[in-house]
Write a structure and sequence with these properties.
3-stranded mixed beta sheet; 11 helices; mainly alpha; 324 residues; single chain; 5% strand
Length: 324
Amino acid sequence: MKHIKERRNQTVVTEFIFLGFSNHPQLQGLLFLIFLVIYLLTILGNLLILTAIRINPVLHTPMYYFLSNLSFLDICYTSTTVPIMLVNFFQEKKTITYEGCLSQVFFLVTFSGCECVLLAAMAYDRFIAICHPLRYPVLMSKRVCAYLAAGCWLSGLVNSLTHICLTVTLNLCGPNQISHFLCDIPLLLKLSCSDTSVNAIAVYVSSATFGVSTCLFTAVTYMLIISAILKIQSTQGRKKAFSTCASHLTVVVIYYGTINFNYDQPRSGYSLDVIILASVLFCIVTPMLNPIIYSLRNKEVKGALRKLCQGCILPNDSTVQINS
């Protein structure tokens, strides 16, 4: 067959067939419209956040520097899976090449690992701002922020390269069907006819490092933050302190809630629809929610977005006349 070739009497997979959404062929058009709208909202929302932070000097602070990294990550993450999924809605056989599958795995692992570390760095930023406000300018200087952001991207990249190097050594001898709408390491391990013990260990180590440890770090950090906020005497002070980290805390809860729902469930005990739903929430819906959460719960972001929209709608001469 076209997707399989012989090499030294061994069958080798050259492309994969996605089975995701195959249970509902009559809903392909509706699903395409839904995911297209979600994707466009994700791109638009995160681009607005990036632009607002870029052009507004008030938002040139460590917290919004990390937020701009998060928005860029969400654009990259959702763009890794959604475009090919949208194209496949119009294909009778939803396929991806072997090289394309590895590329998708590489970017997914890179961006997901980077986001875990980035959310922890954002929690650390809020901890310093609330618990050590006098030392904040020194502990969260521009150089420190740049190092933290670079560390997030580098750690995700190293983690992804490790998994890819281990994955390319596997013999994928069929079948070539993936019960999903995307490529992922656990799914490829199921298709391998060679020893996957080293790959499995790498997956567990990666999950403990980027999933469990960052989640625990963020949880402990917020326990300290909440404890410090409760010690503030004035009600107005407590409200202001909590408002600075409410958006990030909401994003963290949604992110780790969806990632646990996606990866910590016993796959054999759930239908394909439930597995697909878990991945849709984590890979597609969450990147769309992040800019909405920050724009609704953060007054500074809301004000910057309002000014940005007004600047786009009103011509320059009208703006000058109103200001005068």
